[in-house]
Design goal:
Keywords: Membrane, Transmembrane, Transmembrane helix. By secondary structure, the chain is mostly helical. It has helices at 6-9, 11-43, 47-84, 88-131. 86% of the residues lie in helices and 0% in strands. It is elongated, with a radius of gyration of 21 Å.
Length: 139
């Protein structure tokens, strides 16, 4: 297999877009947490604590996704520097580790989406239970 300086460079746009998407998710969740905190202070609704706890888990996952993505990006650059210095074996190993970190980042992203979907299912379940009269089933 041909391994040149362009091989790790191919990941640059992908990792950059991934980090941008992670940052957007983080900012949206941070805004939602602030909003829920204010609602909790005003209403003292204990149900909001569970929602905030769920969002806290997701924020930690996003932080770890970003850390793995940044480390992957960093190792891509190191791999390119090693190739530039004709250290092909170490460059391949570094690039391989970069790909592993990228996979971990993508797995954490999938896990964060699953947690989000579960939270939405609970929210929609409450809505459906309130909308459907007792004794009647949909479908």
């Amino acid at each position: 297999m041909e391994f040149s300086i362009t091989t790790p460079a191919i990941l640059f746009p992908a990792i950059s877009l991934l980090l941008l998407a992670y940052t957007n998710r983080f900012m949206a969740l941070a805004s939602l947490i602030r909003s829920l905190k204010n609602q909790y202070i005003e209403s003292n609704n204990p149900n909001l604590i569970g929602q905030i706890s769920n969002l806290r888990k997701r924020i930690y996952l996003i932080r770890n996704m970003q850390a793995c993505g940044i480390a992957s990006f960093f190792l891509c650059v190191i791999s390119m520097l090693l190739l530039f210095n004709d250290n092909h074996y170490l460059a391949k190993a570094t690039f391989g580790f970069s790909l592993v970190l990228l996979l971990i980042s993508l797995y954490l992203s999938l896990r964060e989406i699953q947690i989000s979907i579960e939270a939405l299912k609970i929210e929609l379940g409450d809505l459906e239970n309130a909308a459907i009269p007792k004794g009647k089933k949909a479908g």
